[in-house]
Amino acid sequence: MTKRIAITAIVTYCIGFMSAPPDLITMLIQGLIAAFLCALPLLILARFGFVKSASKAMHTLTCVLVGMVALLSLECYVLNVAVVHQTEHLQEPTTTSSSPAVQNRQIASLAQEN
């Protein structure tokens, strides 16, 4: 089971690395998070007796399913962060005071007051 866990963690790392935005630090971090999310539950499951007594095909299936869940949860998180960022970006108020016409009116009104 340990060999399967290592292979699954490496494959999950590679897929998490490749699915990240094109920034090296982000790619490394996302790959490590994906590998951690995959390896930790598998290492915990490997200690249980019912997993130890299961067949090799069941070990492989468990590794694949946990790896897929880890990648899916990471991609959902990344998508959520992207959507929240875009929503915040779209809701920023546009300042019309920076337009030349508004500035000219403000200057004219200040000049009339003096």
Word description of this protein:
There is one protein chain. With 114 residues, the chain is mainly alpha-helical. The protein has one domain (2-92). It has 5 helices and no strands. The protein has helices at 2-18, 24-46, 49-52, 56-90, 100-113. Helix 1 runs antiparallel to helix 2 (24-46), helix 1 (2-18) packs parallel to helix 4 and helix 2 (24-46) runs antiparallel to helix 4 (56-90). The N and C termini lie far apart (84 Å).
Number of alpha- plus pi-helical segments: 5
Count of DSSP strands: 0
Instruction: Give the biggest sheet.
Output: none
Query: How many structural domains can be distinguished in the coordinates?
Result: 1
Order of helices and strands: HHHHH
Class by SSE composition: mainly alpha
- The geometry reads as rod-shaped
Portion in helices: over 70%
Rounded to the nearest angstrom, the radius of gyration is 26 Å
